[in-house]
Write a structure and sequence with these properties.
Elements: H1 15-28, H2 30-39
Helix pairs in contact: 1-2
Length: about 55
């Protein structure tokens, strides 16, 4: 069985990509939209290269 992301290049999660990823679900879900409106998008924390997620 092949992994679903096999053959795809990983993209670095940047602030613009994070905001883009939050915008679509927040637009579709009123409760999530209120949370994002009140608290903002989730933080983009950095970690040491190679650190386990």
């Amino acid at each position: 069985m092949t992994h679903p992301t096999a053959g795809h290049r990983r993209k670095r999660l940047t602030r613009p990509r994070l905001l883009e990823g939050v915008a679509a679900p927040a637009a579709a879900d009123p409760q999530l939209r209120r949370v994002v409106s009140r608290f903002g998008p989730p933080p983009l924390w950095t970690r040491e290269p190679g650190a386990a997620a």
